[in-house]
Amino acid sequence: MGLSKTICRNILVLVVIFGVISACKGQKHKTTIDKGLGISYLDSLRADKNIPGISAAITVDGSLVWEYGSGYSDMSQKKEASSHTLYRIASVSKLITTAAIAKMVQNNAISFSDDANQYFRISDNEISIARILSHTSGIRHYYYNEKIENYPHYDKVSDAVEIFIDDPLESAPGEKFRYSSFGINLIGAIIEKKSKQSFEDFVQENVLRPLKMNHTFMREPKSSKDLSVFYESDQSVVSEIDLSYNIPGGGMYSTVKDLVKLGDAFLQNSYLKEDIKNQLFTNAKLNNGEEVTYGLGWIVQKLKDGSKVYYHDGHMDGTHSILAIYPKFNTSISIISNKGSNFGVTEALELFCKVNTIDNCPEIIADNTNDPELIMKTFQNLSSGFQDFQSAIGTKDRPKIEGLISDTFKSGLWPNKNTFTDFLMEIGNEFEVFEQDFTVRGLENGENAFVKTIRFQNKYPNKSWFLKYVLNDSQWSIISIGEYN
Questions:
Q1: pLDDT digits (tens, 9 = 90+) for 340-390
Q2: CB count in 10 Å sphere of residue 113
Q3: The whole model's pTM is what?
Q4: Which of 5, 31, 188, 433 fits as disulfide partner to 157, beta carbons 3.0 to 4.6 Å?
Q5: Number of Cβ atoms within 10 Å of the Cβ of 277
Q6: CA distances from 334 to 59, 141, 374 (A)
């Protein structure tokens, strides 16, 4: 009898403990939705960026809690933008490709550790699929002045790899982070070859249809009444372009409502298993052990409260896009515009906080030190182009380099500042990079140059600058600095 009481008492204790644990696991951050605050924020963002039309959507716990369109999807027809507006999504396409390859891994059809050379001969070096997804493979990106309009139309993704497949690697696999849309195009081609289906059919069957993304397309759906017009910075209409050369890496079309469905799929365990997602969301490392900002397909952004947000943005003529997921609040956020712009993860989080009336909005981690050496190191990390820049500052070459930089400054662009280093010290080094490097060829000296776009968040959140620098006699030098409005 005593034993029975003891057993019952222990069972009762276990039930209570289990109930507490279950309650803790199921505990969610409760928020109050204020749709009006979100509307005001997006309207202001559109006005600040001078964007014709912009749309956004937010889900929490898998349910759509807010959607809105501001401005016009077609200015000439005064057609209003909405959450149904269909946009080019540029590099956010990479997340759909990531979902497709992750599904293959989950089905044991392929492995992240597989050598890509077994599908397409790229290099004598082994290049894992994981290296390609984390942009550490060495495969090149577009050249800045590459005449993509001269590319032929491609019916198959695997045919488009001819553009880059014979080009040498820019670095050994794992040696450097180097953003590469062509690398993701190769992932699409591998999916095509391994599945024995077209990339489009595989994505339709394994991503779009299961997630009910019924308004996402691999190629431009010209007959769609919801398709936006796309605009240049002067609000003229962007010329038509055939994106068949770059479908997996940047050629798809979608809506904000479809993209948050994709984000939700990465938040839940019903579409991808937790062990697969853990690999996607873990910072990749270089051969020397240094972490890069990417996991597999996703950018991993640490926040000041210790949490993380995962995202990808996209930028091309006539569009700018972002899809962000924030596990702390089990939320998915998407914003897309019909003109190139520079909003990013900061704006996505701010929009989420406005809609959910969160006063202390999480901020991305940025180093606030004013130490000149660390600032120079930071800029080195932003681009391999500054490898010699830090060592040059403070040496006998400093006046020469500062003179070169100051000569490129346009009148009024950098008020009362004559040198790049002085400007950095004034502005601080809290910044966000929203475009990756583009290689520029065809310079008079025959060398390559690179362009990096940077936005400083603390003093000029609505302005961005591009820095173009060139390698001359093994010395990197800035050759132009300009401002994006």
A1: 877 888 899 999 999 999 998 988 775 333 333 333 333 333 333 333 333
A2: 11
A3: 0.75
A4: 188
A5: 23
A6: 9, 25, 34
Q: Give the C-alpha separation, 421 to 428, whole Å.
A: 10
Element (H, E) at 190: helix 181-195
Give the residue from 286, 304, 284 showing the smallest Cα distance to 294: 284
Tokens of 365: 């981690």
Distance of CA 175 to the CA centre of its chain: 21
- Residue closest to 53 by CA, chosen among 69, 36, 37: 69
Contact 199, 248 (CB under 8 A): yes
Token pair for 49: 């960026």
Q: Which amino acid is at 393?
A: I
What is the 8-class DSSP label of residue 84?
Answer: T
Contact 283, 289 (CB under 8 A): no
In Å, how far are 116, 237, 242, 244 from 220, measured between CA atoms? 29, 16, 9, 10
Tokens of 88: 């080019």
CB atoms within 10 A of CB 5: 9
344: closest CA among 262, 429, 434?
434
Contacts of 408 (CB under 8 A, 6+ apart): 478, 479, 480, 481
Residue 346 is predicted with a pLDDT of 86
Taking Cα atoms as reference points, which of 315, 257, 319 lies closest to residue 85?
A: 257
Q: How many helices (H) and strands (E) does the chain have?
A: 14, 13
Query: Alpha-carbon distance 97 to 102, whole Å?
Result: 9
Predicted local confidence at residue 462, as pLDDT: 52
What are the angstrom distances between the C-alpha of 253 and each of 65, 77, 114, 259, 338? 23, 21, 29, 10, 12
